[in-house]
Design a protein that fits this description.
The protein is 28% helix and 22% strand. Strand 10, helix 9 and strand 11 form a beta-alpha-beta unit. The strands form three sheets. Strands 4, 13, 14, 15, 16, 17, 18, 19 and 20 form a nine-stranded mixed sheet that branches. It has an eight-stranded parallel sheet with strand order 5-12-11-10-9-8-7-6. The chain is an alpha/beta fold. The longest helix has 19 residues.
Length: 426
């Protein structure tokens, strides 16, 4: 990606690089006391062994991150679409930079606090997957747009009332630039989004009438309508995407390059098949692909279902590490990693290996429950003091528990080394 002074197209490189100067201390639960007082850059250069880090711990795998970024970028490019990965998954400007460097069109976010993080790091193109209705937030947005001609922003609306509120707040803020808006189409039992095509056309008409807004396209989220790869779910997603395509072709836009945006990390292959032929900028918003997982996305990802070129798949880049602190019964061990440390909303952690001992001691083992600070590990041949690597499901609710995440060279090695640190803002 081309350099423009201190900015890679899409993000302020100098602001991201400045994170290397942050001092490590007690604020970051992942950092060993031996590294307190070091800067991030010094700790990275020291290449500390993972054995120096305590538990519980969450890590990212450098090789898996690079592999996933390349695989998705190549696939999106071959499909002739754009990618605005959902930044809420990581809330990590350094990882957003990796995605933008790989060719991402922009970054998607969901809330004003998330948008403010992105703008603090100079992200130039943002897509808000929702309707921005907070008057104070809209006044801030107006200031950002008016103060930076290179800042591009597009959001959604799913009711005439939301259009009226947005327009009123922007005019009160004396916004000079119109805000680009996509009509959001939803579906039965889904989340936000108009359910009726006639209502969608009414929202589009309201946007065109609003002096502070501009009709820029349509958007939606098919992942709210299905949660597995069954034939019924796939058919439901296809039907929704066809509705989205038909709606797009029936509206008139106020820009020469209207946007059609859909696609999480579960059904992006269907988005390409149904929407890829439209005369529009088709923008995917897949967010979980970069980190991936050992649970929900491993099972439902299109690449896991054979959509990847040459059979390539995403790799899980995240792992948790928990220490056996008690073996009170023959078939029960307690780890010191619990709900405060790992995700559990889309499946419990899976034991994968014991550090330094390989996978054997945990073959057939399972985590059956989590407390705030403990995992209940059943049927594992482990001893007090052993450190167990856990595979996790759903990165969105794993990374948000960590403000600084060590990146290891190889999470499967006998002695992983920490080669970087990723700062998050949730």
């Amino acid at each position: 990606m081309r350099q423009e002074g201190g900015t890679v197209t899409g993000i302020d490189v100098e602001a991201v690089d400045a994170l290397d100067g942050e001092r490590l201390d007690w604020r970051f639960k992942s950092v060993p006391v031996s590294a307190h007082g070091m800067t991030v850059a010094q700790a990275r250069d020291a290449r500390l062994p993972l054995d120096d880090f305590g538990t519980p711990l969450l890590t990212l795998d450098a090789g898996a991150l690079d592999h996933n970024a390349r695989l998705m970028a190549d696939w999106v490019s071959a499909a002739g679409m754009e990618l605005a990965p959902h930044g809420k998954t990581t809330m990590a400007p350094a990882l957003w930079r990796k995605q933008l460097d790989a060719g991402a069109w922009g970054i998607t976010l969901a809330t004003f606090p998330q948008l403010r993080v992105a703008r603090a790091f100079g992200v130039r193109r943002l897509l808000m997957a929702g309707a921005p209705l907070d008057p104070a937030g809209l006044a801030w947005l107006a200031g950002e747009l008016d103060g930076d001609p290179e800042f591009a922003f597009v959001c959604w609306a799913d009711s005439v009332r939301s259009v009226e509120l947005m327009d009123e707040a922007l005019r009160l803020a004396r916004a000079q630039r119109r805000v680009d808006v996509c009509v959001e189409l939803g579906g039965p039992n889904g989340r936000t989004g108009v359910r009726d095509d006639g209502d969608a056309r009414a929202v589009a008409d309201a946007v065109r009438r609003a002096p502070a807004l501009r009709l820029a396209g349509i958007g939606g989220y098919e992942g709210a309508l299905a949660h597995d790869a069954s034939e019924e779910s796939v058919a439901s997603v296809d039907a929704y995407l066809r509705r989205l395509a038909n709606l797009y072709e029936g509206l008139e836009y106020e820009t020469d390059e209207p946007v059609v945006t859909a696609g999480g990390s579960a059904y992006f292959d269907q988005v390409a098949e149904v929407l890829g032929g439209l005369d529009a900028q088709v923008v995917l918003r897949s967010g979980s692909y970069l980190v991936h997982d050992d649970g929900f996305y491993r099972e439902i990802s299109p690449f896991g279902r054979g959509a990847g070129a040459g059979g390539e798949r995403f790799r899980s880049a995240m792992h948790a590490w928990g220490r056996v602190v008690s073996v009170p019964e023959p078939a029960l061990a307690l780890l010191d990693a619990g709900r405060r440390d790992v995700s559990f909303d889309a499946g419990l952690p899976e034991p994968q290996l014991v550090r330094g001992k390989g996978a054997g001691p945990v073959d057939g083992a399972r985590v059956t429950a989590l407390n705030d600070q403990h995992a209940f590990l059943r049927d594992a041949s482990v001893e007090v003091g052993d450190v167990v690597r856990l595979g996790l499901s759903h990165p969105c609710t794993a990374l948000d528990k960590w403000t600084l995440i060590p990146v290891v060279d190889d999470a499967g090695a006998d002695g992983p080394v920490v080669v970087d640190y990723v700062r998050t803002w949730f």
